[in-house]
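Morning run. Coffee first, then this:
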Amino acid sequence: MHWTIEYYVTSDGKCPVKEFIDRLSPESKAKYVFIADLLENYGLKVREPYVRSILLLPAKSLFCSMDLQKKKRKGLSAGRLQ
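And here it is:
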């Protein structure tokens, strides 16, 4: 099965990931192309050291960290949070 890598595109048509890739050194860009080819050709069969699974935080932890960020924006220090 052949996989396709889809990149995020902003509402104004920019593709930040591709812009980042274009700014990489030739060596880093070659490494990216190699790994992208592996992903397109082998999909989920590709393992470390080329890819790692992303672990999501439990929802409670996510909400707690979001709450902390809101309080920091309001000028409260983290030391005052309970």
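The mean pLDDT is 76. Good start to the day.
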